[in-house]
Amino acid sequence: MTHKPPKPTPAAASEPEPLPVPELPPRVILDLATKCNLRCAMCPVWGSDDEDAIEAAKGIMALENAKKVLDEVMAAKPLIHPALYGEPTLAPSFKAVVRDVKARGLTVAINTNGLTLHPEMAEFLVEIGLDSISISIDAVTPETLMKIRGIDKLAKIETGVANMLRARGDRTVPRIGVSFTTQEQNKHEEAAFIEKWTPIVDVVRIGHVFLDGYFQDIKAPEKRVPCNALYLTMPVHNDGSVTVCCLDGFKETNMGNVFETSVKEVWLGEKFQEVRRWHETDQYDKIPICQKCNGWVQYLFEDEVRDGLLIRRSPEFVYYNRIDRLSNWSGQLLGGHPEPALEDTDGN
To answer: Quick one: what percent of the chain has pLDDT higher than 90?
Structure first.
């Protein structure tokens, strides 16, 4: 079911019809703990040099509050991400929340830096039925990893990937991927990263770094369109506050608080609807965080099939999907992407 907000009165004749909004968000990001074991320079929170802002952002979401949100959204069967600005496996309630999500029949996906993927953790994630895991690596050499993430423990991260693959064995899930965020210090290793990992994991994601309010080095179409994130994703911070999008690590925007009211009241509330309307009427200057942002291009995809891969490209991301592993990329895991349409699964 979708909800259409009423048009402002009086409405300008040239204004477009409001875009439909689902009654509940199809994707929910739960910031179980703003806590991380790295200080990556590219991270909007942990890469900041504003220690006071970082201290203000830190926090732990109470388990009962996480369950409150899950109670309210489960009817829509959304995709759940149990982390926003932190390493998800470090959250005190991580295992309990993942168990709860799977017990409700929901889809859960995590992004991790891989440092905690020891055999016991890998076994837990596989046995509990985790649907997807993406390990951020960003390098093929320890020297480059040090420049990007401030550590040289590449072998430990790669062992974490191997632990996940070993624990999964012949099972379909979880979908296992690795990611590489291209920036000045590692761009020389991008091709080698793709070549190394595409035969090993289900998907390799290549993205661009987000700095100074926009994704660097991407070419956006001349005509801007409303950002799909406003209609697909609700980011819930550890204190229950909701921001316009997941890139707002220091909560410059405030759409409401789901612990104080409800998910639906915030998702369909006046503040969120106002921001959506500003996007729909090209008033991006009304939202400072949106002014320069070009993240809206991430859903403008084109597909190419070759060498046993479905390569899905947008100006912001490229996904190298192994065709023989596409069966675990479906439903809510698509995250707003179109279903893969393969005329020739041999890639010829």
So the answer is: 83
Measured distance CA(257)–CA(275) in Å, rounded = 16
CA pair distance 164, 132, nearest whole angstrom: 11
pTM: 0.92
* DSSP-based three-state secondary structure for 233: strand
With beta carbons less than 8 A apart as the criterion, state whether 81 and 28 touch: yes
15 alpha carbon, distance to own chain's centre: 31
**What does the pLDDT look like over 46-85, one tens digit per residue?**
888 899 999 999 999 999 999 999 999 999 999 999 999 9
Amino acid at 176: I
**Lookup: tokens for 328:** 């675990």
Distance CA 148, CA 185 (A): 7
In angstroms, rounded to a whole number, what is the distance separating the alpha carbons of residues 181 and 55?
26
DSSP codes of every residue in 45-108 = TTT-S-HHHHHHH-EE--HHHHHHHHHHHGGG--EEES-SSS-GGGSTTHHHHHHHHHHTT-EE
**CA nearest 168: which of 13, 335, 328?**
328
Measured distance CA(282)–CA(290) in Å, rounded: 11
DSSP code at position 18: P
Beta carbons within 8 Å of 43's beta carbon, 6+ residues apart: 36, 85, 249
The tokens of 198 are what? 């595409």
Count how many Cα atoms sit within 13 Å of the Cα of residue 240 in the half-sphere of its side chain.
Answer: 19
